[in-house]
């Protein structure tokens, strides 16, 4: 392994009215495809509450509307699109509450997903939980309201790629945006052909910030044929004030069957973890929501905090180690790596990423 450097539109409102007119009939027996990022079920949080969820409809049918309500309120707060709810600073009074996430597809209400939460504080705005007011923004688990969100990295044009000389064999990669997928037409495709377990790395320098110490990576991943994918690697590189480069490396590995994290001694190494993961076991042609939280100290000692995979959050155990090395990189660099490692002799891997965002504070 080697490391280098919305408000609702009129059209949506019409769509909402259409689905509501057809929703009076009994709810269909659909399989829900709602992923709640924040607040997760059972969470204890403070007000204002950060609310974020994503859905892809149900039973293979694309959604036509998406919203949420709080407790027994009859008011539905509509998402910025039929796929996403991204709300910052939702005022909810102290106590126990239920947030109900609702999606409609093909004129039918999909199964509702509910987050039962405890709010330990009142909103500074003084609004009650039944007000139903919502403001735009982007949030995720354990992200404070003052966090800075990167651009949607899928949309950036300056992605570059190369074979990872730390892997055996060979690889050749390409990337395209926007790529047509079964659900999104604004995802980025990463395509690789490989031999003998070779790996291809793509990288993108997207911001300048040496002061941030806490990060959350948030993305959606779709793999056409997981059987050919040995490792999916998602990294952040940061040049900190002392001039060293910190590698926040995380990958889902078929070899250790775990989420692995990086540390530095005389070189960078992977360390297996207590959190299970195997990309080859993922369902083919399926979107997965992946979030990873991590932070560092002033010397570049990194703690990998947690992974949230399809709404299930797991905490790393003992995942703290030095991850800083002097590389001579430009001051304040923030750079993302995406790497695909092929499984066994040879083949190809096609993977899509959607709404890839880094939050930092």
pLDDT average, as an integer?
A: 85
Report Rg.
Answer: 21 Å
- Helical content class: under 10%
Strand content: over 45%
Task: Describe the fold and architecture.
With 361 residues, the chain is mainly β. It is 4% helix and 52% strand. The chain is built from 1 helix and 27 strands. The strands form 4 sheets. Strands 11, 13, 14, 16, 21, 22, 23, 24 and 27 form a 9-stranded antiparallel β-sheet that branches. Strands 12, 15, 17, 18, 19, 20, 25 and 26 form an 8-stranded antiparallel β-sheet that branches. β4 and β5 form a beta hairpin. The protein is globular. The protein starts with 9 loop residues before the first helix and ends with a strand.
Task: Produce a short descriptive summary.
The protein is mainly beta. It has one helix at residues 10-22; strands at residues 32-38, 44-45, 49-58, 63-70, 77-78, 84-90, 95-105, 108-109, 113-119, 135-136, 148-149, 160-163, 170-179, 187-195, 199-208, 214-223, 229-239, 245-253, 258-264, 268-271, 287-296, 301-309, 312-315, 320-322, 324-325, 333-342, 346-360. The protein is 4% helix and 52% strand.
Layout of SSEs?
Layout: H1 10-22, E1 32-38, E2 44-45, E3 49-58, E4 63-70, E5 77-78, E6 84-90, E7 95-105, E8 108-109, E9 113-119, E10 135-136, E11 148-149, E12 160-163, E13 170-179, E14 187-195, E15 199-208, E16 214-223, E17 229-239, E18 245-253, E19 258-264, E20 268-271, E21 287-296, E22 301-309, E23 312-315, E24 320-322, E25 324-325, E26 333-342, E27 346-360
Parallel strand pairs: 2-9
Antiparallel strand pairs: 1-3, 3-6, 4-5, 4-7, 6-10, 7-8, 7-9, 11-27, 12-15, 13-14, 14-27, 15-26, 16-21, 16-27, 17-18, 17-26, 18-19, 18-25, 19-20, 21-22, 22-23, 22-24
């Amino acid at each position: 392994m080697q490391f280098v450097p919305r408000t609702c539109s009129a059209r949506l409102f019409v769509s909402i009215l259409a689905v509501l007119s057809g929703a009076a009939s009994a709810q269909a027996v659909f399989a829900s495809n709602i992923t709640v990022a924040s607040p997760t079920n059972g969470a204890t949080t403070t007000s204002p509450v950060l609310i974020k969820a994503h859905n892809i409809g149900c039973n293979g049918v694309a959604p036509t509307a998406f919203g949420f309500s709080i407790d027994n309120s009859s008011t539905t707060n509509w998402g910025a699109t039929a796929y996403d709810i991204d709300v910052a600073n939702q005022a909810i009074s102290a106590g126990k509450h239920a947030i109900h996430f609702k999606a409609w597809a093909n004129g039918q209400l999909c199964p509702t997903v509910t987050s039962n939460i405890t709010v330990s504080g009142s909103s500074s705005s003084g609004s009650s939980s039944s007000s139903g007011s919502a403001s735009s923004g982007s949030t995720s688990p354990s992200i404070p309201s003052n966090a800075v969100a990167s651009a949607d990295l899928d949309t950036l044009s300056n992605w570059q790629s190369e074979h990872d000389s730390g892997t055996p064999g060979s690889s050749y990669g390409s990337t395209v945006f926007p790529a047509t997928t079964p659900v999104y037409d604004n995802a980025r495709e990463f395509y690789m052909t490989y031999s003998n377990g070779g790996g291809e790395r793509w990288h993108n320098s997207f911001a300048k910030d040496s002061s941030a110490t806490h990060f959350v990576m948030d993305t959606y991943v779709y793999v056409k044929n997981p059987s050919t994918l040995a490792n999916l690697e998602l990294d952040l590189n940061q040049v900190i004030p002392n001039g060293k480069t910190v590698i926040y490396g995380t990958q889902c590995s078929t070899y250790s069957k775990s989420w692995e994290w990086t540390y530095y001694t005389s070189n960078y190494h992977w360390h297996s973890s207590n959190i299970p993961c195997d990309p080859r076991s993922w369902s083919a042609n399926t979107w997965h929501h992946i979030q990873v939280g991590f932070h560092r100290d002033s010397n570049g000692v990194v703690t990998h905090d947690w992974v949230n995979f399809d709404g299930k959050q797991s905490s790393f155990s003992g995942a703290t180690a030095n991850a800083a090395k002097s590389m001579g990189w430009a001051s304040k660099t923030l750079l993302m790596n995406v790497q695909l490692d092929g499984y066994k002799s040879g083949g190809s891997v096609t993977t899509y990423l959607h709404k890839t965002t880094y939050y930092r504070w």
